[in-house]
Amino acid sequence: MAVQKLPIAKAINESLRKAMETDPKVLIMGEDVGKLGGVFRVTDGLFKDFGEDRVIDTPLAESGIVGTAIGLALRGYRPVVEIQFDGFVFPAYDQIVTQLAKMHARALGKIKLPVVVRIPYGGGIGAVEHHSESPEALFAHVAGLKVVSPSNASDAYWMMQQAIQSDDPIIFFEPKRRYWDKGEVDTESIPGPLHKARTVRDGSDLTLVAYGPMVKVCLEAAAAAQEEGKSIEVVDLRSMAPIDFDAVQASVERTRRLVVVHEAPVFYGAGAEIAARITERCFYHLEAPVLRVGGYHAPYPPARLEEEYLPGLDRVLDAVDRSLAY
Prior knowledge:
Blueprint: E1 3-7, H1 8-22, E2 26-30, H2 46-50, E3 55-57, H3 62-74, E4 78-82, H4 93-100, H5 103-106, E5 116-121, H6 136-140, E6 146-148, H7 153-165, E7 170-175, E8 182-186, E9 198-201, E10 206-210, H8 214-226, E11 232-236, E12 239-241, H9 245-255, E13 258-265, H10 270-281, E14 291-295, H11 306-309, H12 313-324
Parallel strand pairs: 2-3, 2-4, 4-5, 5-7, 6-7, 10-11, 10-13, 13-14
Antiparallel strand pairs: 1-8, 6-12, 9-11
Cofactor: thiamine diphosphate
Keywords: Oxidoreductase, Thiamine pyrophosphate
Pfam family, one: Transketolase_C
């Protein structure tokens, strides 16, 4: 059956399975990805079906995990590395930005490193410190890395397939609080290019741009705004490096207003780059300044306070109202 209704976690699992069946050079590595099936069970069953040589439980050593994956990629493998939680990636940051990102340029294009680094990211699960970070801007800033994040099950399945097939290193951010959100997945029909944004709701008064976990919030905001007679367009960015500025520009030229939404702090976030580029490109179309909605420039708070920290429906609608008031 080509079309299935799957949660995002299961869609990623099915995508990994398909990739491993198709290409024996695809390997999975990470902490507890094997016998346990991952802390979110995203790799559940793969160890049993493919064995310990292809689904590899590693020590708690993120730098070593990524460094080993780089070596395997140099030998012709396609490693898929899991960083168990977003805040655990920083011990591997040196390997990612000084080796993984730069090897292709350093070798004048002769060496390719087809490594996928999976990172469950974002808040909303009531976790402890270091388990709810949104560090995507740190990686999007690094030349040589591609950075993507699905918002739904179909994209989770197909973007993982495309990431594994890519010869470029890709940081694959998985919105962990959406792991159990279900959606239809057509396993025989590719929805589009990996780095292409997609309009997921049409509108005429204002554009909301988001990616990963905040796409659902923006769709809820657009539905709420419609009850007040406001027509809101929602664009799912899907990729933070590269960014499909053409798609955002085309939407803003129609609606003449833009609000960018992400979980990560507004300060130096992806929204800042989008706001600057769209202001340059659409200066004579804009009827209001580009506004940004995101987290605060502060360490992620304890679980009891995270609902105050995370951008929700009210903060998005407030930005919509402020933009439309110009």
